[in-house]
Design goal:
Oligomer: single chain
Radius of gyration: 31 Å
Number of helices: 15
Number of strands: 16
Largest sheet: 5 strands, parallel
Structural class: alpha/beta
Strand content: 15-25%
Length: about 475
């Protein structure tokens, strides 16, 4: 009987006990493999450590193993796991991936500690084991949540430290580098500086947020309304509410923490009183629905590339990132003025035909579509032979031969796909522009319709406020 080849999958989440450590799992799997005349190459050992098993797509090693299993010919005959719960704790994932592996790849998943046989009764036993594993996973999550809520109620830390603190011995400790920045943020805001200007100041200083990103308006506002800086702790016992960005809902609970405050209660109250006053100046959700305008989504900031959005009650445009404190250069311009400039530029481009453009692919003949699909497959093959060489499956000579063969095929397919000349491209753009220019100058055509017409031929409009110039990048379908 020929020796079978297997892959080993090991998963350890943060809540697992010692017997489920990676070393113990692989030891048991290898012992089983030796007894059963099964070979496990080192490159076929896949490990996800410190990762929950509830969702397969969150396990990178698992997804890499599944992708490899789909290769032709199949790289291994089976997947060995310590327990079925290591493969999946979600019955839906288990059914989908096991079925796919069996039917499409001819690969079985085998638990080395839960031998269930090969008769029809084993199907029920396997399903029962998986149901028990999923119940355990759900129950464990509930117990963890209950334990965290209980710990929080006593002032214990159950989350990562916010900006300005670092983790001490089960308590937040002020960070020497960022705690002074928190105080500066509160003082600047109380002294009249806007959240946008504070964000720009921090970005100029090179200060990064807790996630390593540049500061935005909302990052500053989140700090200003966070009671953690008073020595308190805040938590929603029902879990995170993504619609409550600043944790202002009535479900949030605030308790006294055991960590030292960074700011005084007086400074915190002054800052939050000003925040409330600023909010009163704007009707809630008043700017959620913006009026349509001809250049919606087409104009870009020449400094950061961000979209220009409506500002000043819909009368002008401004760089989206500038408004959030992430771009240093204002690109404010009235809508009427930039509309006029765009129309003038289109007419000028129609005259001299020396404009920039990009090509967008469109569905053409059946033959062209088939060629494009085949081309994509060849590029995928090229990537796979590279992976095979890097994994030591193919020799250097095999890799060279395969690469040459696939590259030649790619050249043949590319040569068979017709490419338009520059004259044809510009002629196509000119024809569309001639139709569009009359439409956008017609006052009876709605702003939304004008925007739709422009999108058929314009990729983007780059506005440079410093030099008061615009550059239009057109697009053609071929």
């Amino acid at each position: 009987m020929p020796i079978k080849t297997a892959a080993a999958y090991i998963r350890v989440s943060t809540d697992d006990q010692l017997e489920y450590s990676p070393d113990s799992q692989i030891k048991k799997i290898q012992e089983y493999a030796e007894r059963s005349d099964i070979h496990i190459p080192s490159e076929f050992i896949f490990l996800d450590e410190g990762i929950s098993g509830r969702k397969a797509e969150k396990r990178p090693a698992f997804m890499k193993m599944i992708a490899l299993a789909k290769s032709k010919p199949k790289p291994f005959d089976m997947i060995l796991v310590w327990k079925f719960s290591r493969f999946a704790r979600n019955r839906e994932d288990s059914i989908v991936y096991k079925s796919m592996l069996r039917k499409q790849c001819g690969i079985d998943v085998v638990s080395v500690s839960e031998q269930i046989g090969e008769d029809k009764t084993s199907i029920l036993i396997e399903a029962l084991l998986e149901a028990m594993d999923e119940y355990y996973s759900i129950n464990l999550a509930e117990e963890v949540k209950r334990g965290m809520n209980e710990k929080f109620s006593r002032g214990g830390v159950v989350s990562q430290p916010p900006f300005g603190y670092k983790m001490g011995d089960d308590v937040f400790v002020p960070d020497d580098k960022t705690a002074p920045v928190v105080r500066m943020i509160f003082e600047d805001y109380v002294n009249g500086m806007s959240v946008r200007k504070i964000a720009m100041k921090l970005n100029d200083m090179g200060v990064l947020s807790i996630k390593g990103n540049k500061f935005e308006n909302r990052t500053v506002e989140y700090i200003l309304c966070n009671p953690t800086y008073l020595g308190k702790l805040r938590r929603n016992p029902n879990g995170r509410d993504i619609t409550d960005r600043f944790h202002r809902s009535g479900d949030n609970i605030i308790v006294e923490g055991r960590h030292p405050p960074i700011i005084s209660e007086e400074l915190y109250e002054k800052a939050n009183e000003r925040l409330k006053e600023q909010k009163k100046k704007y009707v809630p959700h008043a700017q959620q629905k913006q009026a349509d305008f001809m250049l919606r989504g087409l104009c870009r900031c020449s400094d950061c590339g961000s979209t220009l959005v409506q500002a000043v009650k819909g009368k002008s445009l401004q760089c989206h990132k500038y408004a959030r404190g992430q771009c240093k250069v204002s690109h404010s311009i009235t809508i009427a003025k930039i509309n006029e400039a765009v129309i003038d530029q289109i007419e000028a481009d129609l005259e001299d035909m020396s404009f920039s453009y990009v090509i967008r692919e469109r569905a053409d003949s059946e033959k062209d579509n088939i060629n494009k699909v085949l081309l994509q497959k060849e590029y995928s093959k090229l990537e796979r032979v590279k992976e095979a060489f890097e994994a030591g499956i193919d020799s250097l000579e095999e890799y060279r031969l395969n690469k040459t063969r696939i590259t030649n095929r790619i050249k043949e397919l590319e040569a068979d796909i017709p490419k338009p000349s520059e004259e044809e491209i510009k002629s196509e753009i000119k024809m569309k522009l001639s139709e569009v220019i009359d439409r956008i100058k017609d006052s009876s055509v709605s702003e939304n319709e004008k925007n739709n017409f422009l999108r058929t031929v314009i990729r983007e409009i780059i506005f440079d406020r410093k030099n008061m110039t615009i550059q239009i990048v057109y697009q053609a379908m071929f």
